[in-house]
Amino acid sequence: MREVASGVWQISFGPRDAVNVYLVGDVLIDAGTSSMGRRLVRRLAGRRVTAHAITHAHPDHVGGSSAVCEDLGIELWAPAGDAPDVERGRPTVAPGTWASSLVARAPGWKSPKVARRLVESDSVGAFQVLDTPGHSPGHVSFWRESDRVLVVGDVFLNRTLFTGRVGVREPPRVLTVDPERNRNSMKRLAELDPAVALFGHGPPMFDADRHLGTFVDGLERLP
Ligand SMILES: [Zn+2]
Question: Taking the complete model, does pTM exceed 0.90, yes or no?
């Protein structure tokens, strides 16, 4: 566990921070895959955790949530727009892609109950909920204005999912329900000028305003 901002701890799984979750004060954000749930609980031993929130209903963020909530006896808070997916145990995918047929056959996750539906401007500890849809229907990010710390979720990735190369990128289009909408969310987050950006995948970024701004400016030139 590594402190990446005041009172914010990163717990990572796999090489080059392949999958990250964050303990923000006493709230756990994201929980990795189903197979990580129990390991995550062990790594949280001795920590005070009073609630669990997720950025979006994808198997590598909510997969471990039922184990976490059961073992620690805490509530799950999920974005209002993704709560139906959380509870049915499957993500929404763009229709007609190879990913959709893959996801249709994948096992999904154990469906936890959503105790609180997060919407824009809600408070989660010292952080504020931002609606950043596109990667999933109801994706949210978490923002602490006082020291400009941003929990990004998967609006941006900071490594490729497949080769592990570190660097800012868009999430894979086949795993993004509405890539254009996600680009609007990317712009929104870059315009906040975050000092620290914490990603679902890839290492933390400590001069995020410059990097994310440059990346978003270059998006116009991408297909
Ligand atoms: Zn995702």
Answer: yes
Quote the CA–CA distance of 24 and 57 in Å, as a whole number: 19
Ion ligand 1 nearby residues (CB, 5 A): 58, 154
57 alpha carbon to ligand 1 midpoint, in Å?
A: 7
pLDDT higher than 70, residue 28: yes
56 alpha carbon to ligand 1 midpoint, in Å?
7
Inter-residue contact 141 to 104 (CB < 8 Å): no
Q: Does residue 101 or residue 146 have the better pLDDT?
A: 146
Give residue 153 CA to ligand 1 midpoint distance, Å: 7
CA dist 6 and 223 (Å) reads 38
Cα of 70 vs centre of ligand 1, distance in Å, is: 23
Task: Give the separation between CA 116 and CA 14, rounded to whole angstroms.
Answer: 30
What is the DSSP pairing of strand 123-124 with strand 149-153?
unpaired
Cα gap 136→81, rounded to integer Å:
9
Domains assigned to the chain:
2-219 (3.60.15.10)
pLDDT tens, residue by residue, 177-187 = 999 999 999 99
Residues 174-217 pLDDT 10s:
889 999 999 999 999 999 999 999 999 999 999 898 999 999 99
Can you tell me the distance from the alpha carbon of 223 to that of 214, in angstroms, rounded to the nearest whole number? 17
